[in-house]
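job 3f2a | input accepted
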Amino acid sequence: MLVFISDLHFVDETAGKHNIPTSAFEKFLTNVKVHADKAKAKELKIVFLGDIFDILRTEEWFKEEEVNRPWGNNTARMRERARAILTKIEEKNRDTFRLFEPAAIRERFENIDEVETVYIPGNHDRLSWLIDDLKTRVIELLGLESSNPENFQHHFSNTEYGVYALHGHCFDEFNYEGGPDRTDKDYKLVPIGDPIITELIAKLPYKLMKNVEARADLSPEEKENLQRNFQEIENVRPFSATLKWLLYQVEANRDLKEIIEDTVDEVVQEFQELTFVKKWYDRHDRWYNPFDTADKIQGVLYFLEKFKVFSTGKLLGIANKLTELFGEDELVKGAAKLFSTLDSRIQYIVMGHTHDPLKKALSVSREGSKLHEHIYLNTGTWRKRYHECRDGSGFIGWKDMTYVMFYTPEEKPNQHSLPVFESWSGSLKREE
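job 3f2a | predicted structure (432 res):
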């Protein structure tokens, strides 16, 4: 039996209190045991499919010069700061990590002969496999078997279960800088998404609260609400809706409109001045392609720079146009192409990254009496997500918990003697 979860985004909480409570993992492991016992599983692998440790969404990097940040020159100072961030993440999630200690897992699943956890890194935890000290600590925190060669790879494959899994950021032009071969060297390259998360998404509320402290008289409760609302911007889905989320926050805080506008200007200018960003533009901005990756980013930054100039109505029009540029889910298209390169026994491709739990039937064919099905599955996220209302009136948030399980034909007998899957998802709507 295989179980996949992803995009847990354990954080140090300097850029927002977004950690998932330990009780959620207790429920998850309890449910997995019920299913494993029912299937009389002899083995169990729990696969963490990327973005487990969020080393990017933190304010700690603002204590370092650009050269010492993850998009700098891979300095000793950068590695030291990354270690400190992971240590803080561990402190904030200590009880959760205890659930995955080998002794705790063995005791919980005592009826199963072989139980193991496997870790496939994503883009937010890129440093967790690049820096040896972090790698060693991740092995301990997730209860990994250090000798298992499946750990810290960029994909997981098992023909017995008909599964090929990867985090999926290699199909996202903002979060993958490498080529189609997807080698270690490709995954080591820093994508533009890294500084976007830290230098725009995390820095905006960080700078805003500093400016509010200096220029506005708000009660502690008002400050807390303002900070929390702006720190939630990275949880808005789809990503293109974050521009409308920002407009929504401006409209909800009209008395602070000037401070918010000045802060947005400040953050955008600092982003544009980053050495990494300037060099990235030089490599990616192509005059012969009017809708390249650089143009999309520049379009978003243009939108942000016009906060003071355009009316809300005009900005909403620009935001809608920018949304069209981001198109359909690239991971679905990537999965469809990927099937043609894989072992014919693979019938499921599993990814995370998008935070959108999804199941897509891609193709089906028969070879005599043998059935071939190709299905794409996305494990979503356990983090709270905000969804834009259909009528454009605002956003509504709730939490989802999604996990995907796979069984061999022996564990789940079926007509075609094929591996089968179950996807379980629950939602929680509660104001906290």
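job 3f2a | The chain has two domains: 2-188+331-428, 193-237+239-325.
job 3f2a | closed
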